[in-house]
Amino acid sequence: MSDSKATPSPDPLIPLRSRTNSPTQDVDYDVSESEDSDDEFSRRPRIPYVKGFTFSAQQHAPPDPFGRDYDTEYPPAQENWKALSQTHYCLSCPPREGQIYPEESRTLTITSTIRSGYDRGAQLVVVDNSMVAKIYDPLYYADTDAWGSKEDVVHNADCDYSREAAAYIQLQKSQAARDVTPAFYGTWTIEVETLVGKIGQQKPHKRHVRFILMEWLRGETMCNIRPVFLRRPVRSLILKKALHAEAIISTAGLIHRDFCPRNIIVLGDNYDAEISVKDIRIKVKVFDFNISTVIDHPRYELHDYAIEAELFRAKWHPRIESPIIGYFGHMNEFCCPGWCSDEDMGPEKWLWKHFHNDPRFIPVIWDPNNPDKDPSYADRASLKDGSDSGFSSGGEVKEEGERSSESDSAQNT
């Protein structure tokens, strides 16, 4: 989501500020295809998603998500797809249909690129200097995996689009989830003119390509921030907000499946040493939902689990699931880069310190003096009161400063 890249620097704030991204590859030439072949489809055409490209989009209702955890049937691939070049396959096999709404259209212009290139998966571009378009064009997906096996790029692009669209649609049902994810501006389709053939002998072909529109977040991903340069309370503040955001998303009925520093963006960079921790105002947002699962979706195949999860959430509402349970023994993505201690049981003790007395979360039972025994949720009946969970009756997340315990816990890290 960020249009910046990490640059080594002794200044702890430089990795937290926006920078200009540089092209990852010459988009006019596909190095993966041969120029010498007589097959007009042997070489992929230039990538159209560059600065200045203007296109007209129509609103599109995506098909049901499919793949892991969904029982949606996917049409079988055409028999000879492995024998076709990537260009030929993408021209002969359109994406799954869904529903197009021609009356709902808009014209967009790419004003900068975030991630664009051959074999990069979905293309990420900024449009109209205000939004990000995530474009699921199979022609520019990698057509072989790490072991050299042929990939069904149309299947992969369809899967990414349908799953991410389903995720964002689900997230809109929760105000709290909307607060910790990019604003969502819908699902769309465009008709892309694709020139095929050798230079001077090219023929135009039309292809339908799907994309989603979302908020352009001008921040920095956690993987581009070097926590060693941050004060310990600031590191804990950011990490705590990130885990809180994931808990909100989970409570909204979504399993992210790729929650890690590269998919978490930090907004705000007032981390100067002279600023008190309690005066720091930052937000954390989570993105990249192309492999996520909506457990409330009618095509979700684990129906018993979905019912059980819904009953559990209802039982504890308005409290939400505790990161202590979700990340106990699973903090490597965060402790290895230095967001919390990597000492024996250090991450688990960090979780316990920051979340076990937080009334926004379901209470957890664990004995730090007997760390080998996993934590578990407390019995609701054992609580004497239904203290505030950090959510208002409308489900909004309370901001920093509304609850003194938030700033207190950050200062006492």
Automatic annotation (TrEMBL):
Per its record, the protein catalyses: L-seryl-[protein] + ATP = O-phospho-L-seryl-[protein] + ADP + H(+); L-threonyl-[protein] + ATP = O-phospho-L-threonyl-[protein] + ADP + H(+)
Listed Basic and acidic residues bias regions:
372-387, 396-406
Q: Which InterPro entries match?
A: Kinase-like_dom_sf, Tyr_kinase_AS
Record field: compositional bias (Acidic residues): 27-39
Into which EC class is this enzyme placed?
transferase
Q: What is its EC number?
A: 2.7.11.1
Molecular function GO terms recorded: protein serine/threonine kinase activity
Reading the lineage from the top rank, the first entry is Eukaryota
Q: Where is this region: Disordered?
A: 1-45, 372-413
The protein depicted here goes by the name non-specific serine/threonine protein kinase
